[in-house]
Amino acid sequence: MSIIIAGERSGVGKTTVTLTLLASLRRRDRLVQSFKVGPDYIDPMFHQHVTGRPCRNLDPVLTSETYVQQCFARHSQLTEYALVEGVMGLFDGISSLVISSLSSANDKGKITDFASTAHIARLLDLPVVLVIDCSRLSGSVAAIAHGYQSIDPRIKIAGVVLNRVGSDRHLSLLKDALKPLELPILGVLRRQDNITIPDRHLGLVPTAELTELNALIDRLADLGDTCFDWQNLLPLLKSQPLPPPPNPPHSPSSIRIAVARDRAFNFYYQDNLDLLQQLGAELVFWSPLEDAAIPKDVQGMYFGGGFPEVFAQQLAENTSVRDGVKTAILQGMPAIAECGGLMYLCEQIIDFEGKSWAMTGVLPTSAVMGARLTLGYRRAVALQDNLLVKAGTAVHGHEFHRSHLTLTPTKPLFETSRYDCDENMGCEGWGLPANVHASYVHLHWGKSREIPEQFLKECRTYTS
Length: 464
Hints:
Elements: E1 3-7, H1 14-27, E2 32-37, H2 42-51, E3 56-58, H3 65-76, E4 81-89, E5 94-98, E6 109-114, H4 117-124, E7 128-133, H5 141-150, E8 157-165, H6 168-178, E9 185-190, E10 199-200, E11 203-204, H7 213-227, H8 230-237, E12 255-260, E13 265-267, H9 270-278, E14 281-286, E15 300-303, E16 305-306, H10 312-317, H11 319-330, E17 335-338, H12 340-345, E18 348-350, E19 356-358, E20 366-382, E21 394-405, E22 414-418, E23 424-428, E24 436-439, E25 442-443, H13 450-460
Parallel strand pairs: 1-4, 1-7, 2-3, 2-4, 7-8, 8-9, 12-14, 12-15, 15-17, 17-24, 18-20
Antiparallel strand pairs: 5-6, 10-11, 13-16, 18-19, 20-21, 20-22, 21-25, 22-23
Helix pairs in contact: 1-2, 1-7
């Protein structure tokens, strides 16, 4: 069956509830596969830390409805239990014209909650467990639950989890209010003062930076052992015995790709890494923070997003790596740099305090941190042939950053617009030198296998 953990809005504790469930299941030695709705990178890190298995993103904007179904079917079959964490409120999505291979021509039209948790629940035919923040309500909980239960008859609300309950008296009021709805209460989490995950300017602090994370997970497991109605939850979490789609064949490894992965660079979709391996790449993980040089005998580099601004001083002080990266790229080594990776290829990063830190200097511009958040899905049309796509190719991606560049490229990679309307968001992305693809737009290659194919094709032609 499997379930989706949804919230009645953002900030109600979806991630805490999800991690509590996962931690308690793992303490019971249950194999569980987790998924995350949307383009998030950081929540999946926490999932993976608990389960020991890569979390998979389910995002029909970055991929497709069909890919979402195939991804869920393939990976949920590998474990006894499966769980999906939603995004924002249950019905919070974007407006999109859908002409889907899953629907007939007569079914095409606008979906106003496209890419929402509700959309994924319909695609996968999964029941929803609704998390409600009860810290500032009592009897009104019934109106909230009833509204979510009735607004879309295609969504099955399997039950609710009451979060931030203040006392036994408070819980009694909540139960009395919900009783007429005959909606199961599948969990009750009291207000917790000793369970806090720190955050900063782009969300939660990633797992690699939290020294007390294991102790936190243990506290979550303790909580999960007692706060859930396991008798009714476990059957819901059980994976459906459906035949998964066949795994794509792996090509023999013939090329080595250096993938920067440390505290500064850790935003990667696991499916992207899997695709590179399926296409014949050997991934060599390394650290621009800690290592003394780039890996030997590699034919390409991949710099994901992350928080280079937080570790700018350490990155700047590692001059041997900065020089090595610049030399390799100027000698023609193909390199993908997304968001934080783009910032690393700049001449410098200017942090929130106005301090300047030297970076690799591949790109003749600087990244400046600021208060303005750039966030949203993008439709990006290639303005020229580049390392990954041909001119005129349209791709869908996601931006999420608080930095901007001091100079824009004279020949940008993309003209971008908002995904859900025609609002032009300007041109962006660096493709000079021609062996570089540096962009703020994060791409998921799930429905665009030709992107990693093209990258590896260029890598195979590189000779140092």
